[in-house]
Design goal:
The protein contains 11 helices and 12 strands. It is of the alpha/beta class. A 10-stranded mixed sheet has the order 2-1-3-12-11-4-5-10-8-9, with helices on both faces. Strands 6-7 form a two-stranded antiparallel sheet. The chain is globular, with a radius of gyration of 20 Å. It binds adenosine-5'-triphosphate (ATP).
Length: 347
């Protein structure tokens, strides 16, 4: 089918397993685009250490300019050095473009035996504040202070995002996750904002759970949750925990959403232990790309990619090692393209 529409998208392959999973996802999207009359103009940029080696800057000016003009990016993981080194590229981009909502659906894929079949929960994580403000300093040698920033504005808008999503998509419950028994002012403010926003959404049930109890409750019975509404750090930790319920970090997608721009990226990081070995599972980035297609109003294409992905999981012969298969990244991507071709023709 000849292309009827072209989407210009900023592409950040990233490092570690990023380039492998990005290549796989681009191949799938282009195959699906050929079937549905959608073309992509990819503006591809390095970021992080690789960009620094090339251009002397961790986030090149052209990358910022590209996102500002395309307003949508698909991003692989970019390594953040532990301890010293440069600031997180992920966090920097989220702040620069005010991507205040991190949306992470945790859902089982068919055919995968997991401990919690049929699980379908969503993490809505505040994406710009909290300990991620990066405000740390040495008070005196041997004493370091990190500032946890929680604002009424940030808490209110992430709560409104969660409740709006619940209303629009018929989700029943929102749990605000906190540690307000200890952090009475900061988490207390977060909770008071959530309660206030809830008053506008009486049809959505609202509960509050303490974060450590939430970890236990999640492992005992994750089905009790629908939408988890969290500050930044708790959301990061709970995302990795919840990814294990549906098969691991290789599967769970994410979207960083603001009022003007959106960056779609997997929950996982750069996984250096398996980088460059054709072992990485591209499903998490592919499901992030499905979220991107919905954001671009390409719902037919999104449905087709998701259906092809699910067909590969149902079939089970071309899965990667992290979910018990033997296929490499490329073989998995080829299987998704073949599954796309086996679907009925697009309208
Ligand atoms: P970050 O803090 O940067 O987000 P993380 O703590 O989420 O990173 P990762 O590097 O993403 O950690 O991954 C932890 C482990 O999970 C990896 O070492 C790897 O074994 C596994 N893993 C992550 N992503 C994938 C993937 N796409 N395919 C297969 N295994 C993966």
């Amino acid at each position: 089918m000849t292309a009827r529409r072209t989407h210009t998208v900023t592409l950040i392959p990233g490092d570690g397993i990023g380039p492998e999973v990005t290549k796989a996802v681009v191949e799938v999207l282009e195959a699906a685009g050929r079937q549905t009359g959608v073309a992509f103009a990819w503006h591809s940029f390095a970021a992080g250490a690789e960009a620094f080696a090339q251009s002397g800057s961790y986030i090149p000016r052209e990358l910022y300019d590209s996102i500002a003009s395309t307003r949508v990016a698909l991003k692989g993981p970019v390594t953040t050095p532990v301890g010293g080194g440069f600031a997180s590229i992920n966090v920097t981009l989220r702040k620069e473009f005010e991507l205040y909502a991190n949306f992470r659906p945790v859902k089982n894929l068919p055919g995968l035996a997991t401990r919690y079949p049929g699980l379908d929960l969503i993490i809505v994580r505040e994406n710009m504040e909290d300990l991620y403000a990066g405000l740390e300093h040495v008070v005196v040698p041997g004493v370091v202070q990190a500032l946890k920033i929680i604002t009424e504005k940030g808490s209110t808008r992430i709560a409104r995002f969660a409740f709006n999503y619940a209303r629009k998509h018929g989700r029943k419950k929102v749990h605000a996750i906190h540690k307000a028994n200890i952090m009475k002012l900061s988490d207390g403010l977060f909770l008071s904002c959530c309660r206030k926003v809830h008053e506008e959404f009486p049809e959505v049930a609202y509960h509050e759970h303490i974060v450590d109890n939430t970890c236990m409750q999640l492992v005992m019975n994750p089905y009790q949750y629908d939408i988890l509404l969290t500050e930044n750090l708790y959301g990061d930790i709970l995302s990795d925990l919840c990814s294990a319920f549906v098969g691991g970090l290789g599967l769970v997608p994410g979207a960083n959403l603001g009022d003007a721009c959106a960056i779609f990226e997997a929950v996982h990081g750069s996984a250096p232990d398996i980088a460059g070995k054709n072992l990485a599972n591209p499903t998490a980035l592919l499901q992030s790309a499905v979220l991107m297609l919905r954001h671009l109003d390409e719902s037919e294409m999104a449905d087709r990619v998701q259906a092809a992905l699910e067909a590969v999981y149902t079939d089970g012969r071309h899965l990667t090692g992290d979910v018990g298969g033997r296929a490499g990244t490329q073989e998995f991507a080829d299987a998704v393209v073949a599954a796309l071709e086996a679907l009925p023709a697009a309208s």
